Amino acid sequence: GVMLSHENLLADVNSSEYSFPVKAYDKALSFLPACHAYERVFQYVYIKMGLPIYFAQSMDTIGQDMKEVQPHIFSAVPRVLEKVYDKIMATGEQLTGVKRALFFWAISLGEQYDLDESKLSAWYKFQLNIARKLIFSKWKAALGGNVKGIASGSATLQTRLLKLYLAAGIPIYEGYGLTEAGPCLSVNCIKRGMKIGTVGIPLIDIEIKLAEDGEILAKGKNIMQGYYKNPVATAEVLKDGWLYTGDIGEWVDDKFLKIIDRKKEMFKTSGGKYVVPQQIEKILSESNYIEQIMVVGEGRKFPAALVIPSYENCIDWAKTNESSLINLPREEFLTHPKIYELIGNEINKLNINFGNWEKIKKFHLLSYEFTIEAGELTPTLKMKRKIVSEKYKKEIDGIYQ
Fold it and tell me: CB atoms < 10 A from the CB of 209, how many?
């Protein structure tokens, strides 16, 4: 249990407030668990800034609630933003003729977006304005039409996805923190600077430095008192006023913080090579046919993966390529040799981004998504790697046999 005092929370509220792109009486929508420090501190900032907070009815009604509330701001996790994107893409796949061509033209344009406008040609900007009016305006309408900013945290957001949202004129403020830090430490925001692929600049009144091995250390009035009734664990992470976060980072342009991976989640193969699973998962999950993925391989000859294919997107693929598969039960469909071949081709295409020791050599397909209810995800939809590894030990061992 992390002990956060009133001073810790208020300090983080004061540090975070400057980065919020809203004003009093703007509307905030809340749907993440309020028992989590991330959403709790956001609620405190809303209160301090004078924003009315609307609470979603459930995770299943978020789309409907956004249209009703028309919020100016809300906090999300990458999984939620991925789901919104998937629904938009599914709609685009159903279009025909000119409408379909325009939709995918806009998507292609968005993937080339850069925050540094000097890198964008006048012709690109002209096309982007057209895309925003014809296509991306519908994205904004799906989020209520008034969004000034969406905070994304808890896990890394795909770079491709971030570019698309920003190109659509939907500001995503990707940040970084952990409960022990109250929880927010840094953020990408318009007021202080943004850089795609990083988690932004340290918040006001919070110090961040990197240890010799790249571990991120933080100091400020927002740092926890310690772990409840656990002085040994407290002493391991609190040293000379600095919080040792357990995350590995690096500086980009000497001011933007980039997260490489969880120190504890990095692993070595039997050949002694370090593998950073989150970085590999981030790239591979850019495939439209991969819903979820977890890289495994500690102490093994090579990294492998548990993969949950995107059922809807694989069905769409089958309609055109293997129509005989469509009527198969879900489990039989997602583990069919043709789907293995499809996912294998996707992984091989994306493996080009990695060194030989990092490439996914083999994988096992699962039929159902990891969920909070099954204990495989945290309330903010992060994977509980240890639990997933234990639950699917047989399948993982099978990969290497």
Answer: 13
Calpha distance 132→105 (Å, rounded): 12
**Residue 178 corresponds to which tokens in the numbers above?**
């952990």
Question: Which residues 6+ apart lie within 8 Å of 42 measured at CB?
Answer: 16, 28, 30, 75, 151
- Cβ-proximal residues to 94 (8 Å cutoff; 6+ apart), any chain: none
Q: Which residues are registered as beta bridge partners of 29?
A: 54, 74
| Residue written as token pair 């490439």 | 359
- Domains parsed from the chain with CATH numbers: 175-262 (2.30.38.10), 267-400 (3.30.300.30)
Decide the pairing of beta strands 242-252 and 256-262: antiparallel
Do 44 and 69 touch, CB atoms closer than 8 A? Answer: no
Report CA-CA distances (Å) from 117 to 38, 125, 252, 320. 31, 9, 19, 39
Give the whole-angstrom CA distance, residue 276 versus residue 295: 9
What's the predicted TM-score (pTM) here?
0.74
Cα 9–chain centre separation? 24
- Write out pLDDT tens, residues 8-64: 999 999 999 999 999 999 999 999 888 889 999 999 999 999 999 999 998 888 889
CB 155 within 8 A of CB 382: yes
| Contact status, residue 224 vs residue 166, Cβ threshold 8 Å | no
Distance CA(174)–CA(152), nearest Å, equals: 5
Question: What is the DSSP-derived secondary structure letter of residue 361?
Answer: -
Q: What is the DSSP letter of 158?
A: P
Q: Where is 2: in which H helix or E strand?
A: strand 2-3
Strand-pair category, 226-227 with 201-202: unpaired
Q: In sequence order, what DSSP letters do the residues of 306-334 get, joined into one string?
A: EEEE-HHHHHHHHHHH-GGGTTS-HHHHH
Count each helix (H run) and each strand (E run) in the chain, helices first: 15, 19
